[in-house]
Amino acid sequence: MRLRGSHKSPARLTECTDLELYLKVREGGSVGESAFRELYGRLAGNLYAYCRCLAWRREESDDLFQEAITRLYEGALQGREVSNVAGYVIKIARNLYLNMQRDRKPVISIEHDTLAVAVPSHEKTEMLELIHMAMELLPEDYREAFFLREFADMPYEEIAKVMNLTNVNVRIRVTRAREKIRKILEPYIAEYEHEQKKQ
Predict the structure, then answer these.
(1) Residue 177 and residue 115: Cα distance in Å, rounded?
(2) Given 58, 79, 146, 156, which is the most exposed site by the fewest CB atoms within 10 A?
(3) What are the structural domains of the chain?
(4) Most distant CA atoms of the chain, gap in Å
């Protein structure tokens, strides 16, 4: 699989849906490669951020991301039927992560890294950084549901499929995650509003 090269994606590919691009990957050759490059460009940001949400160690999240992208590509070439490409690659990453967790011995580690959401560094706001900090304090299942809803902008139905939960359970987790984050951020928000009034 090559993502770098001299080929440019034909302008028409930008008009294709994710599913149309996925189907074009099966054609192979320059068309398939261009279609996958376009698809990669659309999915990579959210997928990588999701991998960072699951695996806070950068090395693990990088491996997770690369393996998920590779499996997406291989699935397309093998003719795997998919209805929602973005949801499918998120599901791949989640299953890979669960397998990784199952296969390794329990370890305790403290990470001080923050979630790398696909937002240009010059546009990152202090509040976004605070939200990332608050997310680290959430239970893993709440954090995942919150991320998929608020950052990946996935519908509750798709999140339910990815996490093997009911719609109701997903909504509960997202709501509780929002409440916890709001509670964590209350002092920071109050201080921010106080500073704004002084200006």
Answers:
(1) 16
(2) 79
(3) 1-113 (1.10.1740.10), 119-199 (1.10.10.10)
(4) 62
Split the chain (199 residues) into runs of 10 and give each run's mean pLDDT: 47 87 89 92 90 80 92 92 91 88 51 38 52 79 86 86 92 90 80 69
Encode burial over 135-156: b for 16+ CB neighbours within 10 A, e otherwise.
beebeeebbbbbbbbbbbebeb
d(CA 195, CA 199) in angstroms, rounded, equals: 7
Helix (H) and strand (E) counts for the chain?
Answer: 8, 0
**Which of 4, 33, 35, 44 lies closest to 17 in space, CA to CA?**
35
Give the model's pLDDT for residue 35.
93
Residue 30: CB partners within 8 Å, gap ≥ 6? 7
Query: Closest Cα partner for 134 from 184, 93, 98, 187?
Result: 184
**What's the pTM?**
0.61
DSSP code string of 136-189? HTS-HHHHHHHHHHHTS---HHHHHHHHT--HHHHHHHHHHHHHHHHHHHHHHH
